[in-house]
């Protein structure tokens, strides 16, 4: 083992992408193993690697961790991105859960039937502009600080940045009514670790395409 965290998932965003984002934001290099066949996935289950028979799987600090939320919490705590006390942690948790609800819609979008795609895209736009982004716009405006919690870079900032870029891919002008979020996006983009992650050739994955959808359905078929 090189000592680097080892990530096992498909070669695409999915539920591993927020984990890649958080590790990259913390300046941590990692290795990846990509599942391409159902046999590889079944072998992980058979060998007892997947506690609940699900990926993502992250091997870190001698542990084989599953469950996205648990993995993210561990990484955030380990790299000091999880607030200074219980109250800050609660705020970070609330923000992260909200962003995750929005990201779940984006996660499922590539798997929409063709006749539902337009409707689902409208739902993403509506939720982003009317439910989720107004919350973060208000938070940033009210406390007048660069970051969402405690005026210190945290997991919540990373998750929000990922969500902004993911929604913008589908709704390019989504931030037009959110000046605070526009400033936030610029600041985040210029943080050295995030700037590096946004460069071509980084471990960041492109938007899911037909090949990714096909691979997911093949690997996880019942």
Mean pLDDT: 94
Helix content: 40-55%
Task: Give a short account of the largest sheet.
Answer: 4 strands, mixed
Number of strands: 4
Low-confidence stretches: none
- Per CATH, what is the topology of the largest domain? Glutathione S-transferase Yfyf (Class Pi), Chain A, domain 2
Please report the first level of CATH classification, the CATH class of the largest domain. Answer: Mainly Alpha
Q: Report the order of strands and helices.
A: EHEHEEHHHHHHH
Distance between the termini: 32 Å
- Quote the beta fraction: 5-15%
Helical region count? Answer: 9
Give the oligomer, counting copies of the same chain as homo and different chains as hetero: single chain
Based on Cα principal axes, name the global outline: globular
Structural class: alpha+beta
In total, the number of domains comes to: 2
Strand order within the widest beta sheet: 2-1-3-4
Work out the radius of gyration.
18 Å
* CATH architectural group of the largest domain: Up-down Bundle
InterPro entries: Glutathione-S-Trfase_C-like, Glutathione-S-Trfase_C_sf, Glutathione_S-Trfase, Glutathione_S-Trfase_N, GST_alpha, GST_C, GST_superfamily, Thioredoxin-like_sf
Domain GST C-terminal: 85-209
GO molecular function: glutathione transferase activity
EC number: 2.5.1.18
